[in-house]
Write a structure and sequence with these properties.
It is built from 18 helices and 28 strands. The N and C termini lie far apart (59 Å). 56% of the residues are buried. Bound molecules: pterin cytosine dinucleotide. Pterin cytosine dinucleotide binds next to helix 13, helix 14 and helix 16.
Length: 762
């Protein structure tokens, strides 16, 4: 049990300290770092999805003064391997510049270096590539046929597998009702407002400094050291402010690697900033799963068995995306106690943009699948979808709970979340209004969609480093291996440490994203930062208090065991005697004078198993049954991330997360033509919603602490995304139920809804 003192800053709506600089335009991004004499890198990219390179003519480009062009033949770098995850086929490597074959529109065929960006763009246009087109594998279904192979030497397009190919013929034994459907979770583009950017320079001391728009500076440091053979101590990676990552900046690509190679080769700083249209095709995408689903149970609403078969489109080169069926399978059971679950999955390479993690990564797909199937099952047995859910929820007293799909959930109150969401939305009144509209045969029908979800944060149980140092003026600095690219760690990590030290929050600053300043780190993805990075910082702060107590005892001429820290005042004194006392500033300046300030420093690493945040989202939509247009009217989101550090930031995370989830339900889909040409390469064709397209969400707080860390905190960064998509999808189908529609493809845009209505009523 976590007990916080009455004076604790935790749980308060502290405004984000980082916002001052962002709102005043003082953020420092890679593209606006002053970098004297930097050259510009511009990539020449394949326009064909699959082709053999017959020749490259760079001569016209190189007639432009100051332009140099490098092709694969000029670059002595090894190919980039897939992430070192055992299930992924390691032989499907990616050359940093394609030399023989291009495998997607956007694959790099050359890089132009110029004095400025405009010249680079002009020169790139003049690089002539002679291609012999190869047949393109565009869909996972085509890939599975293995007729055209992306990597002939591997002998198959399958790049990873999940679950088991063994089937129990009696899986659905005892089920009165069995429902099946196929759900496609469309491919999404991550769309960070700041596209990728990289810069590199070699200093007078021979050390290479690299600035990256990234989520994982320490992992990037490792990859660059291995790829370029740079001694780790001669390499520094700095991540300045980053304008969003959403999962897609969690793996360094050939672009960043080449920028570093060029800077070292040319002896001048080099910088690259991705354009939006380049980002749409070359920055890895997310989702892209086809799920074949079968759910069975009894007529009175008990779920008994579930089969989930996952085909993941991995794109041209396997990335973390190809591992996601493992996570989808692990989370297949959702919030329900389903006794029998079978998971089978495979990932295949296709001639499309590589697929990686996008907010939620593997877990949205699991929630989309089970939540859709529960609704189908409810419709089949004629029971209210809320009721079917309630009957099958894992009970509050059953934790820790092991699901049939292999996850061990730490804590939860799923029924509490469902009740709270239904109460908040006014479920009964909405159903009454729905009945009225149905009776009237209204053109605009009402749909109410429920989604109960749980998700896994810190999914692979990682560790994180935190260090706390007291400065001479008595303020504190937190060094963390986590990295904030929009999540507000400068505020929440400062709150966590301030609470332990008894200092005002503004006396605690946070240092992150610099491999010279922080010796170790895993970065930020999988909504893991607070529960490992925050906890590590907290433990380091506790150790600093312990050391400070011993020092204060010396100065107060008391026994160390008798000295306490008054957390409300931030002063050390003998227990029971408030004076004499020493503030942090007094303690720090005196110890600095004696050369002992370094005693007030501590480092801690914290490792813990995954935690499982959860919640219920209810969406209310109006569907125009003539045109198929869907209007999202309300979305109530109950999201439980354990103990909340800062409700203001948590609400912000839910707000952004829900927007991504709703966008997948209603708008976003990255589309390729039948021959593999990307069709949605700008915000004119890829319907990335703006605030004007979305209503305000109704976020409802709920806190069920985890026993797995002393803060009691789970993650919140992806919950909104995971909960929202199935709620909206179910709401659309709920509105269309009287018309016999039982399936609408995602996204539920006007066209897909209209088609489903037409087919059902034909
Ligand atoms: N928090 C809290 N109380 C909790 C849990 C979290 O106050 N119980 C606070 C944290 O301290 C932190 C924020 O909420 O300030 C998010 O914390 P956490 O859930 O630990 O997640 P991470 O910091 O690890 O962020 C990762 C997550 C992921 S995986 C994606 S993708 C994502 C997201 O965060 N991308 C984002 N949120 C984003 N927000 C912005 N603005 N931009 C992105 O790219």
């Amino acid at each position: 049990m976590v007990t916080l003192g009455p004076m604790s800053i935790l749980g308060h709506r502290v405004p984000r300290v980082e916002d001052g600089r962002f709102l005043r335009g003082q953020g420092r991004y890679v593209d606006n770092l002053p970098l004297e004499g930097a050259l510009t890198a511009t990539f020449v990219r394949s326009l064909l999805p699959h082709a053999r390179i017959a020749g490259i003519d760079t001569s016209a480009a190189e007639t432009i003064p100051g332009v140099q062009v490098f092709t694969g033949a000029d670059v002595d770098l090894p190919p980039m391997p897939p992430p070192p995850i055992p299930v992924i086929e390691a032989r499907m490597t990616r050359p940093v510049i394609a030399t023989e074959v291009v495998r997607f529109v956007g694959d790099i065929v050359a890089v132009v270096v110029s004095e400025d960006r405009a010249t680079g763009a002009d020169a790139a246009e003049l690089v002539v590539v002679d291609y012999d087109p190869l047949p393109a594998v565009v869909t996972p279904e085509q890939a599975l046929r293995d007729e055209v192979l992306l990597f002939p030497e591997v002998g198959t397009n399958v790049c990873a597998r999940a679950g088991s190919a063994e089937h129990d013929e009696n899986l659905f034994a005892g089920c009165d009702v069995v429902v099946s459907d196929t759900l496609v979770s469309p491919r999404m583009a991550g769309c960070p407002l700041e596209p990728r950017a990289a810069a590199a320079a070699v200093g007078a001391d021979g050390r290479t400094t690299v600035w990256l728009s990234t989520q994982v500076p320490h992992t990037d440091h490792l990859v660059l050291h291995l790829m370029l053979g740079i001694d780790p101590s001669a390499l520094r990676v700095v991540a300045p402010d980053v304008g969003g990552g959403f999962g897609v900046k969690s793996h360094i690509g050939p672009e960043e690697t080449l920028v570093v190679w060029l800077a070292r080769r040319l002896g001048r700083p080099v910088r690259w900033a991705e354009t939006r249209s380049e980002s749409m095709v070359a920055l890895p995408h997310g989702r892209g799963q086809r799920l074949q689903l079968t759910l069975g149970g009894t007529r009175d609403g008990r779920l008994l068995a579930y089969r989930i078969d996952i085909t993941q489109d991995a794109g041209a080169y396997p990335q973390v995306g190809s591992f996601l069926p493992v996570l989808t399978g692990l989370m297949a059971s959702g919030v329900y106690a389903i006794p029998r679950i079978e998971v089978e999955g495979r990932s295949v390479v296709t001639n499309t943009t590589p697929v990686t993690t996008v907010r939620g990564a593997g877990r949205p797909e699991a929630a989309q699948a089970i939540e859709r199937m529960v609704d189908l099952f409810a419709a089949e047995i004629g029971m209210d979808p809320a009721e079917v859910r309630r009957k099958n929820l894992i009970p509050k007293d059953a934790f820790p709970y092991q699901t049939a799909s292999g996850a061990t959930y730490d804590s939860g109150d799923y029924e509490g979340a469902l009740d709270l969401a239904l109460r908040s939305v006014g479920y009964e009144e909405l159903r009454a209004e729905q009945r009225r509209r149905r009776q009237q045969g209204a053109r605009r029908q009402l749909g109410i969609g429920i989604s109960c979800y749980t998700e896994i944060t810190n999914p692979v149980g990682e560790s994180e480093l935190g260090r706390v140092e007291i400065r001479e003026d008595g303020s504190a600095v937190v060094y963390t291996g986590s990295f904030s690219h929009g999540q507000g760690h400068e505020t929440t990590f400062a709150m966590i440490v301030a609470e332990r030290l008894g200092l005002p929050v503004d006396q605690v600053s946070v240092v992150k994203g610099d491999t010279d300043a922080v010796e170790k780190g895993t970065g930020t993805y999988g909504s893991k930062s607070t529960q490992i990075g925050g906890v590590a910082a907290r433990a380091a702060a506790d150790e600093v208090v312990e050391r400070a107590r011993r020092l204060a005892a010396e100065y107060l001429e008391a026994g160390a065991e008798d000295v306490v820290l008054d957390q409300a005042l931030g002063r050390f004194h003998v227990v029971g005697a408030p004076e004499p006392s020493l503030s942090w500033a007094e303690l720090a300046s005196r110890s600095a004078g004696e050369g002992r300030l370094s005693e007030l420093t501590a480092t801690h690493e914290f490792q813990a198993p995954p935690t499982f945040p959860f919640g219920t989202h209810v969406a209310v939509v109006e569907v125009d049954t003539d045109t198929g247009q869907v209007e999202l009217q309300r979305l109530v989101a109950v999201d439980d991330a354990g103990t909340v550090i800062n409700p203001l930031i948590v609400e912000g995370q839910v707000h952004g997360g829900v927007a991504t989830g709703v966008a997948q339900a209603l708008y976003e889909e990255f589309v390729f033509s039948d021959d593999g040409t990307p069709l949605t390469t700008t915000f004119a064709t890829y319907p990335f919603p703006s605030a004007a397209d979305l209503p305000s969400w109704e976020a409802v707080a709920m806190e069920t602490p985890t026993p797995l860390n002393p803060l009691g905190a789970k993650g919140i960064g992806e919950s909104g995304t995971i909960g929202a998509t199935p709620a909206v999808h179910n709401a659309v189908l709920d509105a269309l139920a009287p018309y016999g529609v039982r399936h609408v493809e995602l996204p539920c845009n006007g066209e897909n809804v209209w088609r489903a209505l037409r087919e059902a009523t034909a």
